[in-house]
Amino acid sequence: MRGRTAPLTSVVVLAVTLTGCAGPAGPADPAGHPGRAATERARSTGPTAGPATGPVTGPTAGPDAGRGARPRASAGRAAPPHDAPAAEPPYRRWGLDAPLAPAPARTPAAGPLAGGPARPALPPVVDRIPTRDKVVFLTYDDGAERDPRFVTMVRELRLPVSMFLTDSVVGPGYAHFARLRSVGAGLQNHTLDHAALRGLPYAGQRAEICGQQNKLKARFGLRPRLFRPPYGAYDAVTLRAAADCGIAAVVLWRAAMGPAGLTYTHGSHRLRPGDVVAVDPDETGGPSLRERTTRLLRRIQEQGLTVGRLEDYL
To answer: 119-312, what's its fold?
Structure first.
């Protein structure tokens, strides 16, 4: 009626208040849903500070969300409570009290085995990498344990791990390691048949090492640079065969996480920066691969360390 003239004999003034059209606009109704993509990001990265920054659909979108008619609730769906709890952060889902500290940025060219005229004729044998970075390196052998949830763990924690694979153990399970590789795991050489190499003739050792190089090349398009001899047993012939197969370093370990806990091959019973840690396969039906990894990560954090990518240092 505003803007129209009433008859002179009967002047009536009507004050009409239109809800949402007069006065300053209030804040957007927080009852809107953040959308599936934002929800998934919250699940994978944990709680975030402030409101969601992704696109918002429905009546709450835009700066004028508080103006006009009230938003209509979706049919059959109740609005979530305003104080709904945030999604659990990934580190808590995997049994940690705090997120892993990020490893220092590093490229393979900066490692101690970077190419150059002084490169040794035979690959060095390492169980620890000299570094001031507060990192240790997680390695897994054989390929017998193929828990799909371990892939999720590696992805959600962004966990740099190196898998030393034996063809006869992996068997038909290479697809599992393709998934691990897709979330950042490194795939390395652990022989064709898990034979103890020390004392074998050159031809036999070369067949074991080069044979697995060829298998991994055929399946993944890569030729590993790192090799771990089964049982940690090697000799001078092993090093010569490894070099002839394109191996840059023979990797042992200074500490190992087994079903009974963390053990050390030598030195102090404490993790040190640069230690290579082997997560032993479990054939006893004890703690799962995920549980052993969680125990190890807790120990790493307790000692003020984090996990680095082995391939970035060698």
So the answer is: TIM Barrel (3.20.20)
